Amino acid sequence: MYSQAGQDRWVLAMHPQPGSYLEIGASHPTLINNTYLLEQNGWKGVSFDIDPQNQQLWTQTRNNPLIITDALKFDWATFCDLPFVTDYLQVDIDPPAQSFEVLQKIIETGAEFKLITFEHDAYTDGGAIRAASRDYLTKHGYTLHTADVSTQGMVFEDWWVNEKYIKL
To answer: Which residues contact 152 (CB under 8 A, 6 or more apart)?
Structure first.
């Protein structure tokens, strides 16, 4: 409904009851946003973005917090105080190599997620980040549910499930 390619509807279909999310690369609070519909359906979460221009509009529009910070420099180990299991993780910062670096930092804390949408932007680099992220997430117990999500012919994202929590 608000997301670019139906990520919000996919998360609600896979996990219909209200849950929790961690959104890395939030940007605008409603436009092409993967968590706004979740919040409207009772989900709680924390969003992160590097651009301070989003803060005021976010505060006026959303109930769940936005933290303005550089996700590459953020202390994920402290934030993801174990045991840390969250229903949905969204990672989408630019460039895709930085998205992958943040994904690794978060997963390496020991945090677990039931669902993940990871933007790899394969259309920009021939699929190198896509291949690396697929290998990495598979090795960490995630199952690729929806591969190569695209809009306007540009393949940009994969959707993952942790079958420890959600059976396919």
So the answer is: none
